[in-house]
Specification:
It is built from ten helices and eight strands. By secondary structure, the chain is an alpha/beta fold. It has an eight-stranded mixed beta sheet with strand order 3-2-1-4-5-7-6-8, with helices on both faces. Helix 5 crosses helix 6. Bound molecules: S-adenosylmethionine. S-adenosylmethionine (SAM) binds next to helix 4 and strand 2.
């Protein structure tokens, strides 16, 4: 796929580059904020699974404003290294580790956070059940770490896959938050199972001691959580945020939105700093990918092609 055909594919991808966001996902957080007013009164925020950093960019711009507010602290965590951002402290770490929670708290000088966001996603396999399960694990890890760092009354926003067992996750979140809503921003493709839980007013059960255990792994396997009823079953409202004036992420738009201006390709604001394709390119260029015999075959094949 060529550069401009990729641009044609997705309006939010293009807008992200034009506005200087590192990824199109920035619009998801911006649109969630329009609906839920996420940033009001927030000065300490954590961005879990932050790389390449577009959500951290949103936090930085929204919380620090034009003049960097002195008391604003933003901590971004990811397994991957991330290029620096103004006012954002970065931790390269795993959100399933308690040591990561401790490091976040250390950066806040012992103060809890007002807001935790998590756009975490594992590498998808294409096997839907497996992907949903792994995503659920990551969300629970984010919830666990949040219970270590979030202040009572604080907000937690996280990516969720609305698969068939999502009810269990809603029930678990509802134990910790007075209000849980599942929201789908316009910039999240309709064709994607992805949505976001917006959990407001953190209120852990009396006597709850934060820990990193995983209820899906540590408890009974033979319960059908969709069959829970009465007070054990909580139906989370689903909200499609934004109105029809926003761009439709599943539509293809012409390259020139404005008839008066000529389309110009925009380079990504922040190219990947250590992409794995770099090694693949190096291996291919130096003919190190193929086995010895195959390498000879390939070069003799291309020679005979040239002769033709
Ligand atoms: N919100 C980001 C942005 O706007 O640029 C995009 C996040 S990307 C969709 C998902 C990220 O989750 C990846 O960078 C991946 O490294 C991270 N991730 C997955 N598992 C993780 C874990 N256990 N701990 C920390 N980060 C993790």
């Amino acid at each position: 796929m060529g550069r401009s055909s990729k641009d044609k594919r997705d309006i939010y991808y293009r807008l992200a580059k034009e506005e200087g966001w590192r990824a199109r996902s920035a619009f998801k957080l911006l649109q969630l904020d329009q609906e839920f007013n996420l940033f009001t009164g927030v000065s300490r925020a954590v961005d879990l699974c932050a790389a390449p950093g577009s959500w951290s960019q949103v936090l930085s711009r929204k919380l620090r404003g034009d003049e960097a507010a002195k008391n604003v602290k933003i901590v971004a965590v990811d397994l991957q290294a991330m290029a620096p951002l103004p006012g954002v402290t970065q931790i390269q770490g795993d959100i399933t580790k308690v040591s990561t929670a401790q490091e976040i708290i250390r950066h806040f000088e012992g103060q809890p956070a007002d807001l935790v966001v998590c756009d975490g996603a594992p590498d998808v396999t294409g096997l839907h059940d497996v992907d949903e399960y792994i995503q659920a694990q990551l969300l629970l890890a984010a919830l666990n770490i949040t219970s270590h760092v979030l202040k009572p009354g604080g907000t937690f926003v996280a990516k969720i896959f609305r698969g068939k067992d999502v009810t269990l996750l809603y029930s678990q979140l509802k134990i910790f938050f007075c209000s849980v809503t599942c929201a789908k921003p316009r910039s999240s493709r309709n064709s994607s199972i992805e949505s976001f839980v917006v959990c407001q007013r953190y209120c852990p059960p009396d006597g709850y001691v934060p820990n990193m255990s995983n209820p899906l792994l540590d408890h009974c396997y033979d319960v059908d959580f969709n069959q829970l009823d009465g007070p054990n079953r909580f139906i989370v409202p689903f909200l499609a945020c934004g109105d029809l004036s926003a761009f439709d992420s599943d539509r293809t738009y012409p390259l020139q939105l404005d008839a008066d201006t000529e389309y110009r390709y925009t380079h990504p604001p922040q190219p990947p700093i250590c992409p794995s394709y770099q090694q693949a390119c190096h291996l291919r260029k130096n003919n190190l990918l193929s086995k010895e015999g195959a390498a000879v075959n390939t070069s003799s094949q291309s020679q005979s092609k040239r002769q033709l």
